[in-house]
Write a structure and sequence with these properties.
Blueprint: H1 2-7, E1 16-22, E2 25-30, E3 36-37, H2 38-44, H3 49-68, E4 82-83
Antiparallel strand pairs: 1-2, 3-4
InterPro entries: Kinase-like_dom_sf, PAK3-like, Prot_kinase_dom
Enzyme class: transferase
Keywords: ATP-binding, Kinase, Nucleotide-binding, Transferase
């Protein structure tokens, strides 16, 4: 996922600013999406059909760009889908 963020810029892919190797740990500095993970949202909120469609549309746009560049994201899950405070995916 770090390589995807580093190498592929798209409005629906989290922006990575830098990464550091600290000891044996990889620290990643990335865009802060204050809305949190989709997992947290669906755990505490009932989403409307329109909201679900908007999330799906945004995720599919990002995947289409990645697939066009030969990248397959093999770990799509609600924990990996992040939102801004205003609901941008």
């Amino acid at each position: 996922q770090v390589v995807i963020m580093r190498d592929h810029q798209h409005e629906n892919v989290v922006q990575m600013y830098n990464s550091y190797l600290v000891g044996d740990e990889l620290w990643v500095v990335m865009e802060f999406l204050e809305g949190g993970a989709l997992t947290d949202i669906v755990t505490h909120t009932r989403m409307s059909e329109e909201q679900i469609a908007a999330v799906c549309r945004s995720v599919l746009r990002a995947l289409a760009v990645l697939h066009a560049q030969g990248v397959i994201h093999r770990d799509i899950k609600s924990d990996s889908i992040l939102l801004t405070h205003d609901g941008r995916v």
